[in-house]
């Protein structure tokens, strides 16, 4: 029976209740957008998978409302080392406990614990509904108006009509198939075995990640928790060694004590990007949009970045009538960034394996020599998350300016209490100025219904003022995701891109009560 609906049953349907899907639901809920999350499993998948995250993603989890809960289950790590076949250090990429985003630059965690934290938070939000034990069987048609999502459970077949659909349904995504997207192969495919172990043995660890660059037996090792460890080994042809033999180089020679294998699984590591991430109001996120080898720990991180980038834009379109073109910036911003991360992972993978051709030995020697160049490892560490490229929501001015970069997140004093910057700013565009804002900047802030805030005295250590001076900026316009959207350079007067980006954010219907409608005449006056 065909049922016609004139409006959506729910603003957003999210397919997949893994970390990416649930984080997207939480970010939308905190903006007042309702969602239904459809998941084929009834409960959290119990075995560990992702184990590492960075400080930018810790900031995203803070925005989703689970920052403190994640801190309780996370373990800061020292960074990444490249070792040769004899486990001698070739390069060390140090990570600090106080990164740009206000958190340790690398943290280790157990994915089931993270998923429980996210599910618990989801249950506290009436804007979110999780339906487990269901199978999504259809998405479409791809026309203007609500998108139909068909799913099946023990009671039969059901339909939902949504204003938007987020496909967070993994590498074998039905959503990707529904929008006709295909994989673009970035040329990396290897079979590896992943081993998670619990033991009280004195395992040799530097409290960071080791990548063993041995073409005969490349490996990855990291300490995940107090008594939890992760090893990954590339598979060889023929019979494999027993687990104890594989991990023996990290264990005391005479260890015969407790030794619990939590998981041993084989995976094919791939490097792929979907050729399109959107069709109308249907979007791909996480592994549905991109697959990466795990060598720099950015698989899950990339998916959470997808959720953060898309949700504030989608909320603005759904709640405030912002231009549909705002949603085009999701793929144009995230796809180049994801491709960059994947290529870094592939390069690291080739550094570990050396390849199988006649030039492999030459490449390994070149890598070892390059790692001895002063400052190179520090530069490589900083480049893990490059600025967004120029686009409708990123105005480029100076060659080495702040546009497209994230604003630091120091501790600040606001309303007489000490808090993190993002918590004080809330979910809003914000203008930060190095001195008292000019009349034109105050006028723009009033037109957008936001604040123009001088940073002098805002944070205890002067971090924000130093950041603005280093970027040769008198003022910056921050997006809700804390990316610098536009810059007033030192000695400048105003933002020059106002007319361009204001058209994307223009409200075409009654805004959410907490927002102002953009005044076109005022925008014209401040953008001359």
Largest sheet, described in full? Answer: 8 strands, mixed
Strand content: 25-35%
Radius of gyration computed on alpha carbons: 24 Å
Terminal-residue CA separation: 58 Å
Tell me roughly what share of residues is in helical segments: 25-40%
| Tally of DSSP helical segments | 15
Low-confidence stretches: 1-6, 508-528
Global structural class: alpha+beta
Shape: globular
Mean residue pLDDT: 86
Per DSSP E runs of 2 or more residues, the count of β-strands stands at: 25
Verbal overview:
- This protein has 528 residues and is α+β, with helices and mostly antiparallel strands.
- The protein has 15 helices and 25 strands.
- It has helices at residues 19-29, 55-63, 67-73, 111-123, 174-178, 243-247, 299-320, 325-353, 360-370, 376-382, 421-425, 439-448, 463-470, 498-505, 520-526; strands at 10-15, 35-39, 52-54, 75-76, 79-83, 89-94, 106-108, 128-132, 135-139, 147-153, 156-167, 183-198, 209-212, 219-223, 228-234, 260-274, 278-279, 282-284, 290-291, 411-414, 417-420, 430-433, 451-454, 473-478, 484-489.
- The strands form 5 sheets. Strands 1, 2, 8, 9, 10, 11, 17 and 18 form an 8-stranded mixed sheet that branches. The protein has an 8-stranded mixed sheet with strand order 6-5-13-14-15-12-16-19, sandwiched between helices.
- The longest helix has 29 residues, at 325-353.
- The protein is globular and about 75 Å long.
- The chain starts with 9 loop residues before the first strand and ends with a helix.
